[in-house]
Records
---
Amino acid sequence: MSRTSFIILMAVIALVFFVGMWIAWRGRTKRDSGAVVTGAPLVGEELASFPRASYVSTTPLGAPFERLALPGLRYKGFAELIVRRDGVSIAVTGEAPVLISSAQLLGSGTAAVRAGKAVDRDALSLVQWRTAPQDGSAAREVESSFLLADPAAQHRFAVAIAEARSQTNTTHPTIQEEA
């Protein structure tokens, strides 16, 4: 095989590879575009702010290697992450902000590996939440992962998420609490 034919063969293989990746990402984007990830503006008291958190990925709950392409959370990058009493705001650089109400929050956690990132043990902070249902589709339970500055920031994040989640119960009292 001549050098020219080898170069042409490798270029064709690379082109097929990149076209396949583009088609797969387009299909994933189309699949996940129906999920509603923005709600009413969050106006509650700010519990914690992380102006330069590194957003890693959003995956289905319990499936850390299946990346979702939700609107506003498609690409890795720096994000402004704000936890308020009434929810969480995630603004990834170059994307529309995602607003998650406290009623959608399921909790927080830590991990070492997610789609797109492998770090030290428990170095990634997770926010677990539920997308809003749309057009008859069921809500999905997902988790978004972030690499924060240090363990103290991770602790502040976990405490703030727990406090925001607790607001769900106090803003909607049950019949027994009213009595």
---
Amino acid sequence: MRILIVTSLLLYVLVSCNKSNIVDKKLCKEYNIEQYKFCIPNNWVNKENTKYDSKNFLFVNKGDSIVISSGVTNIIDDPIVVDNEKEKQTLLDFSNGELSSKDIVIYKNKDFDTSHSTYLKNYYYYDKINNIDVLLIFPKKQEGTIGAIFNKETRGNKLSIYCNNPSIETQQTIKRILETVKIR
């Protein structure tokens, strides 16, 4: 009798898990780039784009866009940091309108700011997702980039997934997308 109950319970759990996977597949579509596969929610429109040296996807929804690229993509913010207001103004004048005041940061305490990355818009940290090395990127404030670079520190194909200045809803979507990335 005990074996029958345990077997029934195990069968119920397996069937329940299988049903949840079917529901997930109905809510998202699986895509492949190089050796990676990932799942994008169905309410995001795919605007596939191919470059010479990499394959890219652009997914759009409600004013936000998520970029997914197989090539080397530099999504790490690298602000221009100067020592004073005069130097900042000189750069703005010299840039002929290509830079805005937001692009240039003035050191408050050069040693402290550099060692603590206070002038960066985003937080960066290394982790693993589905046993793949990944550099995760999250905005410090409302403006910034959320995303990840998979296999950043290794040779071979990399995968970048990111969105600039996303809404709260899009931030949650990207986190769910990152959890689906796997190597085929």
---
Amino acid sequence: MYRLNGRAMKAGKADWTTPFDLKSITKDKLPTVEIVYSYQEASSGAINGFVADGAKGIVTAGTGAGGISTKMSAARAEAIKKGVFFVTTTRTGSGTMYPGTTDGIFAGDNLNAQHARLILLLSLAFSSDYDTIKGWFATYGTQSIGVDPSDISKHWAEVTIVKAIKDGIVSGYPDTSFKPNKNVTRGEFAVMLMNGLKPAGEGAKLAFADEKEIGTWAKNAVAQALKAGFIQGYDDGTFRPNEPITRTEMASMIAGAMNLKADSSAATGFTDDQDIPSWGKGAVFALKQAGVVSGSENIQYVPSGSTTRAEAVTVIINMLNKK
């Protein structure tokens, strides 16, 4: 569906076909699939109304924490219990698609709402199995070319980056690049981490002094991380979502997510061990012991250094492999 010119190059080949045999169905057999637009305080009326009218699928677009307003999110959860499938077409500011944490929600990648509706309609006409439809969206609803090979080709984290994108932890940019060496902000890392963990339920109420600086695309992830105890603000009551996350802050969040016991008196073995702040030393030590971060007696940890996108996804994938 996306980048049809690229797919046209496959015409006549086996991977050009789709499972949607339109000759085998009639118009009256097509399911009802609708589109709703969200904004920060949008009500649940649109979703409830479409479900009451018999909609089998709904595409959400617009804004809101996690790509959908709180009230719409609650209505969506109830609709999923009734067998309704959803597609989210909202891409966050970090370049991430935020599909939610429950079966029944598909990520629309770079599809606009109208194209996502068409694929969902066709999918539901031929299957009601979540994993099958998810596979179709991953195959027929995504870009044909993926991440620009020149951007990550031969990069030390190439394999991990590809896996992170496939697993929905992070996405590339519209120009097909990934920008592996770009620094990650605290808000962006919270989104990546929660995309990896896929927690269920609502997050904590945000009360940071700079809450308005937290983008709508990151608020749900920050709220969930706060509720889980993975993050905390600074002494002045701020969260500083747009500040680059330091390597020590990253370690603290990952250790919290893994429920690792942090011994602040332990020596990490890094040559700059004395520079690691006491509040984060235990986390760094625990992650090194768990094999999430690597190092030897002869290298530095650089605790105050920033974290790149490649480093962030590598640590998150390592964490998930150890859980």
---
Amino acid sequence: MVFTYFGRHKTNKYNLVGAAMDIKGIKEFVAKYSLEERSFKGFWDYFNMYQKEHKDDFEKDFNGFNSKEIELFIDTVSLRITNWPEEGYNHIVISVRVHYKGKYMCYYTIVFALNGEVEDDHLSLL
């Protein structure tokens, strides 16, 4: 495969740069189903459950917890194509970066089906 450069973007002969991938369509999907807001809400639901069900671990990981010191950022939004090449089981996956007391502590990943329903989620501590 031959690679060429267009400005700062490396691409292949199929010209898969920005617009060729339907980024606008993904952004519209995220907005239509309120996935950013739902991802933040999903984080808090999961995080609160972790706090209640794993008190000792939670205290060790988030010593002296104060919710005002949590900062959430959308880290990535991606289209995951599964069951390649049939493309029969696809998702939008959003990763939320979590900072606590100014330090990157964990990330929360939520998986949405293409009808906007939540399929899975998990919290990964660093």
